[in-house]
Sequence to fold (282 residues):
Amino acid sequence: MLSVMGKKTDAGASRASSSGKAGRTIQSIDRALDILDILAAADGERPLGEVAGKAGLNSSTCHHLLATLVKRGYVGRNPRTRCYFLGARITELSDRRLKQFSLIELAMPELRQLNETTGESVHLAALQGDTIVTLTKLDSRHPVRVGVEEGGKTYAAHATAVGKAILAWLPETEMTRITASNGLSRFTPNTVGSLPELIEELRLVRRNGYAVDDQEFQPGVVCVGAAIRDHAGAVIGALSCSMPAMRARGKPLEKVKEAVRLCAAAVSERLGGGQGALSRRE
Fold:
């Protein structure tokens, strides 16, 4: 049981006495979670006094809570500086949470929203080995539509929106290995034909937060894709909207780009990645 010592703060007293539909809360647990939030927001390890001050606790109470969290692995302590930081147990729990959900199940609510917002075909894909695999799809709401077969595979990551969205966030050595293994085949006159050209395009993908396949894989088809990233920032897949080139113009296309970017950020948020991971600019 967590030990609570010292005088209650106003905030702590309020939490301890709170009631209603949600029921009462446990003050010591509230305080421990506050400490974890404080350490998570820090850009490095923090001394006891600073943690106690931000948590609104006296040093004795904070020390006892930290000691318990350290013992359980949720917080680490630097023996040299006597400062505290998030422990490895936090990462273990996050990893276990991710294993409880399949990417399709987790992403589907956001994919349906994207399909409704844009009216266009929506695809969810992942990199398996050197291959881009379509995991699931939602058909366009328009009479004229484009699509990819569920379970379809392609080695043309350089020529597709989901492929470029994934490649853009891989380590450069891995990106180079995949493109060297698959080659840079030209499918249309618009297809990227050289590694320097691809590297420049991937730089723009990272800056914009989305990738565009402007009739690079199939004539008459435009796709917009964005990467899905987990809590560690690793790319685990990508999603996209595909539409006939005749609808990929002006404001409708800009609307799709923004919707795709926000959808990928929302799915990443569900995975613990947060929108910040996807909105970074170079």
